[in-house]
Amino acid sequence: MPGMMRRRARRRAIVGTAVVAGGVAHHMAKKSSQSQAEAEQQALDAQAAQQQAAPVAAPGSTVSSPIDELTKLAALRDQGVLTDAEFDAQKAKILGG
User: Helix, strand, coil: what percent of the chain each, to 5?
Assistant: First the structure.
């Protein structure tokens, strides 16, 4: 009988350790998934904030200042693409005069 008692005690010790180890593993997995979910949420929040902060231009339309427009027109005139009359007409249109 003493041999049988030792086996039971040893089995209980092994089974008890497995239960504790399984509980620890479950707790760690749960904690890991929670932290991963929090990290994903933070990434989504950062992405949403970045999209809200960046101005969005409509597709096909360009938003530029009158100075940029005049600089482009001057470059086209200097390249010979526009004549002086065409440049002056576009400049008047941009400046509103």
Answer: 80, 0, 20
Q: List pLDDT tens digits, range 63-82.
A: 678 899 999 999 999 999 99
73 touches 90 (CB < 8 A): yes
Look at phi and psi of residue 60 and say left if phi exceeds 0, alpha if psi is from -120 to 50, else beta.
Answer: left
Structure tokens at 19: 């239960």
Phi and psi at 66, nearest 5°, equal: -60, -35
pTM of the model: 0.36
How far is it, in rounded angstroms, from Cα 67 to Cα 64? 8
* 57 located within any domain: no
Domain, as residue range, for 32: 1-52
Type of residue at 24 = V
